[in-house]
Structures are given as structure tokens and as C-alpha cells.
Amino acid sequence: MRELGPLCVGIDPHPGLLDAWALPATAQGLETFALRTVEAAAGHAAAVKPQVALFEAYGSAGFAVLERTLREAAAAGVLSIADAKRGDIGSTMAAYASAWLSDDSPLAADAVTLSPYLGFESLRPALELAARTGRGTFVLALTSNPEGASVQHVGGTDSVAGEILAAVARENGTRPRDAAPAASSPDGFRAGAGRHEANRDQIVTSSESAGLGSCGAVIGATVGEALERLEIDLRGLNGPILAPGYGAQGADAAAVARVFEHVRPTVLANSSRDVLSHGPDVRSLRDAMDRSREELAARLSRA
Ligand SMILES: O=C(O)c1cc(=O)[nH]c(=O)n1[C@@H]1O[C@H](COP(=O)(O)O)[C@@H](O)[C@H]1O
Predict the structure, then answer these.
(1) Residues 200, 202, 208, 214, Cα dihedral to 10°
(2) How far separated are the first and last CA of the chain, in Å rounded?
(3) Counting beta carbons within 10 angstroms of the beta carbon of residue 177, is it exposed (0 to 12), middle (13 to 18) or buried (19 or more)?
(4) What structural domains and CATH numbers belong to the chain?
(5) Ligand 1 centroid vs 291 CA: distance in angstroms?
(6) Closest ligand 1 atom to the C-alpha of 138?
(7) Residue segments in the chain with a per-residue pLDDT below the cut of 70
(8) Alpha-carbon gap, residue 203 to 187, rounded angstroms
(9) How far apart are CA 202 and CA 236, in angstroms?
């Protein structure tokens, strides 16, 4: 993000987009689409985010294309975020973690999106493996879809989403001002943690000067005033924020800057359909990425 700015390009090979690119809705069409997007993104976006379901829809052939896409992104020096939105009970979560975050997996990505709605601690195997292999996680907190509110906003100023974000902050070494000193291991953190261990008004960051932690949060750029209404203060998060909703879902760069007013430099905005609609020409794709990236950078570079 420091080198290439705040844009993540989603690789979302919707059948309609394949058609617009004059590609068949086959594994071959999928491969051309994904690799061309990686080629365009290299040096023009901080990360690409392949949407796993749109590959999975082609079965094993789709997964083979996804494996190749992740390999090519790594070879081109583009960070990859596998948008798999995984979350499961602990024992099987370990297998998901291994698929997306272990060094020897053919599907290894630099980071993976996770759903904490089976309980944040159910994600522990993935958080631990990411830490061991130097990768990252992005935990869904306030999603960009309107239906998310019916679960995530529950509790009001003591909301479910606020609890998830407090847990993410703890992963990144942020602790409440009046809690016992944080142990260095995540387990130690948990042991001292009451349900409301991270009073969101009072979190302090123990490693601000050391850069962002590896546990990110997903917060849609379309959440509007929700952060304010739920009294969620993102300043103690100390991790990157993946913000989908920019572009096709209606949020422009000004809206992204408004929603993330106090943490703008930590935001990585995702655009999928909006950028991809400029394909199949690589140069047009790149121009669209550059425009989005510059527009976002102008609004997000300062807190
Ligand atoms: O985790 C995600 O990436 C995600 C979370 C969320 O809250 N909202 C959201 O739109 N996304 C993903 O971000 C992408 C948005 O695509 P566009 O609306 O085409 O830019 C899709 O791949 C979604 O699955």
C-alpha cells in the first residue's frame, strides 16, 4: 500500500463479464480473464482479490485456474487476498487455514478473508497459521451488503461488529488502558480478557510505531453512518482495513474517506466490477486502475 497506493482489484469472473470480454464461460475463459487482470494489476495495484466462489463454480478446473492465478500474482509481485470468507468449527477450520495459508498448499495466498460469525475464536487455527507463515487475514466485521446489519449491528453501542473489531485489535497487540499488561502470545491475551476486555473507547496501541498488525478487518465502504451510530472507533484497530463497496456498489472515493475519516491511511479499497468492466484490453484495465488508485490516494493519504 505504501508503494502502490490504496487499491485492491477484485478478480470476479462473473459470467456476464466473461461475455463482455468475448470469453467463453469455461475454465479456459476464466483463465484468460484472471491472468489478464493480474498482468494489468502488476505495478498498478497493491493487491488482487480473486473471489473464490466464481472459480469454484467450475469445479476442479476452476480451482486449477485459481491455483495458477495465485502463482502468477506472486511471480508478478502482486499481493493476493483469497476471498474465500472461510469460518468453521475449530477442527475443520484448521483444514481451511492449511488450504489458504500454508506454504506448501497449491492455493496459498498472501491473505484470506474469514467469517467470524461462528465465533471469533473459531478462527484461531487460521490466525495462528497466518502468523507462522507470515501471511495475513481479513476478518469480516461490517460487510457492505444491507443484510449484514441484521446480525452485525445487534447490540447497538455494544454491537456484535464492535466485539469482532475489538478482537481484531487484540490480535494486533492493542490492549485496553486499564487491563493487565498484554502477554506476548495471543493465548495470553485471551486469558486476561473479559467479554468487554477491549473497551473500544479506551484501546491503546502497543505497536503503533512498528506498523500495522497482520489481522485486518473487512468493513464495507457502504456502511454509511453505522460506525458512528454503533460508537465504533477504528483508531485502535492497528490492522489494515479492506473496504469493498467502492465502485459498483455505489461508494466513491469521497464516501470511502468519510467512512474511514480517522484511519484513512490504513484503508485498502476494493473494486471489482467497476475496474473489470474496462477489459479485456490490458491498457484500458490499467488506466481504470490508475484512475481509481489516484482518486483514492488523493482522499486517503492523510488521516
Ligand atoms: O470480503 C469481501 O471481499 C467482501 C465483503 C463485503 O462486505 N462486501 C463485498 O462486496 N465483498 C466482496 O468484494 C467484491 C465487491 O465487488 P464489486 O462490487 O464488483 O466491486 C466481491 O467480490 C464481494 O464478494
Answers:
(1) -20
(2) 15
(3) exposed
(4) 7-300 (3.20.20.70)
(5) 20
(6) 1
(7) 175-210, 303
(8) 19
(9) 8
